[in-house]
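Many groups now describe folds with learned vocabularies. In that spirit, our science desk offers one protein's residues alongside their backbone shape tokens.
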Amino acid sequence: MAKTFVKTLSIIFLALGIIGFVFPMESIFHLTPVHNIVHLASGIVGLIMSSSEAKAVLFSKVFGLVYLLVGILGLFTHEFMGIMFLVADNILHFIIAFASLYVGFIYGASKSSNRTVSQ
């Protein structure tokens, strides 16, 4: 499941990064060039890490923690290093963070304990 989650999330991030450069959005989500680069980098790293379940679980943990910090940062500032944080961005960052943390820590831990019990 972690591989599928990370691969799907990565494809979405790659698409957002590309779409953000082609059709700059300044409505609900304010996507700046820096924001688009972050999306592209996240998508590329995610695709690389989706090659195995263990790497996907690790990516989900790290990615979830980073996006949780980004969500918290967005509560206190509206701009950081060229990235704009609007309310919709913050909500989306928290949703991505919690989904990634679930896959990384809860689902990843349950799969790990199932392997230990069955051996």
Notes: Residues 2-118 form one domain.
